[in-house]
Amino acid sequence: MVVALWALCGAGWVAVLAGLRRGVHGPARGPSLFAHTATPAAVVLLCAHVGHGNLYATIWLAAQWWALAIVTGLRPERLVTSGGPRRLGGWLALTAVLAFAATRTVF
């Protein structure tokens, strides 16, 4: 089950990365790609620093990336450029639902 979770998390990360590479242009492209690339390592290091396992963080990251891909239609820049509070709220709500479902499935 954990290997499937890692695969889903990795696939979600790649889907968002592809959307960022395709959709973000101009001066925001470099920082957004760097931040997205650094996120998995930062989460692992944070969990190690705090002394907490990263299974919950992996579930949350997978849920966030797939919710972002669903809400924005694989174009993450829509969250900022044309999203507004409605799309942001949809992303957060869907993330919570997916994280809850994944947590119940894994545990």
Describe this structure in words.
- With 107 residues, the protein is mostly helical.
- The mean pLDDT is 91.
- The N and C termini lie close together (10 Å).
- Helix content is 83%, strand content 0%.
- The protein has helices at residues 2-23, 29-50, 55-72, 78-81, 84-106.
- It is built from five helices and no strands.
- It has one domain (2-106).
Uncertain segments are none
H/E element order: HHHHH
Total beta strand runs: 0
- Strand portion: under 5%
The overall average pLDDT, rounded, is: 91
Task: Please state the overall shape, judged from the principal axes of the Cα atoms.
Answer: globular
Protein name: Integral membrane protein
Keywords: Membrane, Transmembrane, Transmembrane helix
Organism: Actinomadura sediminis
Topology:
Elements (H helix, E strand, L loop, with lengths): L1 H22 L5 H22 L4 H18 L5 H4 L2 H23 L1
Helix pairs in contact: 1-2, 1-3, 3-5
